[in-house]
Amino acid sequence: MTLFNKYNKEFLKKKLQEESFNRITLSFYRYVRIDDPSTMRDTLYKAFDQLKVLGRIYIANEGINAQVTLPEKNKNAFQTLLNTFDEFKNMRLNTAVEFDNHSFIKLIVRTKKMIVADYLPEGTYDVSDVGQHLNAEEFNAAMESNSAIVIDMRNHYESEIGHFTKALKPDADTFRDAIMMATEMVQDKKDSKILLYCTGGIRCEKASAYFKHKGFSDVNQLHGGIITYAREIKEKNITSKFIGKNFVFDERMAEKITDDIISHCHQCDQPCDRHVNCANDDCHLLFIQCDECREKMNGCCTPECKDIAALPHEEQRKLRKGKVKKDAHAVYNSRIRPKLKGVRSS
């Protein structure tokens, strides 16, 4: 059996469209010791493939991190499968707020050095010494405390389209940047109630341990992240203190939590909360673009990219040949970020 995908995107999309069943989108993680990530990777790939699982799964010595879709009818079998591994027994599965059958088009299982990269030397801090887990109701109540400081542990492009009210939002490109910036922002408030949140909880799990390592005494995290929060407030009819959309790392790009549009098109500054990738494959910059600018710019971020994307594919390949691909972070910092300072500080 081939333990990797061997089909092109067009074939995979066609195959998805021909499916006669509904899929659900799940995310899950666990910090747990995995002695042989490579063997675990191959074992999981074969088992997941049998259950028609698609998505992105990372395995490391420190644990597992996954976002997947699978046939709804296979959910119980999937949970049973995970429970056959001591490392993954009774692991929490977060169900997406919004999902369609095309969140992912292929199965990717990879080994990594870390499931959440902080790039700190192993042993710098105890990742198992985490903060207090709070559900949606408890998190809302904690936000009312005068000493509470709410901190978004995601990247800047995620918090731009949705965040908790009054949250501190580090201007970060990576998780390492986020934890360094966040602890620096509140370094003189180590006795305050710290409330951390992220998409599904995995980054906060590690961030809360880092905050405790740095001497913060009252560290808390939103259990299951924004994904679980959105489901709980809906089920319990609780007022949402999160406004806008939750950015997700699949074909959907985002899940709507409230109807608020708090971000703006990066080209015309009109209210907009839809991320796209530049249509120039040599750029592929992630940015926010409204329908009008999308039509005007043919889905591109600059006139230069628009001209390149309009060329025949063979000509585009010639232009790319021998060139170093653009650093997306550098392009974003120089071209897009200056427009966002007022938006993200709101």
Written overview of the protein:
There is one protein chain. The chain folds into three domains: 9-111, Alpha-Beta Plaits (2-Layer Sandwich), CATH 3.30.70.100; 132-236, Oxidized Rhodanese, domain 1, CATH 3.40.250; 275-344, no CATH class. The protein is 33% helix and 20% strand. It contains 13 helices and 14 strands. Strands 4-1-3-2-5 form a five-stranded mixed sheet. It has a four-stranded parallel sheet with strand order 6-10-9-7. Strands 8-11-12 form a three-stranded antiparallel sheet. Strand 9 (193-197), helix 7 and strand 10 form a beta-alpha-beta unit. The chain is globular. The termini are far apart.
CATH first level of the largest domain: which class? Answer: Alpha Beta
Radius of gyration: 21 Å
Q: Which word captures the global form?
A: globular
Straight-line distance between termini: 52 Å
Quick rundown:
With 346 residues, this protein is α/β, with parallel strands linked by helices.
Write the topology of this structure:
Layout: H1 9-17, E1 23-31, H2 37-50, E2 54-60, E3 63-71, H3 75-83, E4 94-95, E5 107-111, E6 132-134, H4 136-143, E7 148-152, H5 156-159, E8 162-164, H6 175-185, E9 193-197, H7 202-213, E10 218-222, H8 225-236, E11 242-247, E12 254-256, E13 275-277, E14 286-288, H9 291-297, H10 303-309, H11 313-320, H12 328-336, H13 341-344
Parallel strand pairs: 2-5, 6-10, 7-9, 9-10
Antiparallel strand pairs: 1-3, 1-4, 2-3, 8-11, 11-12, 13-14
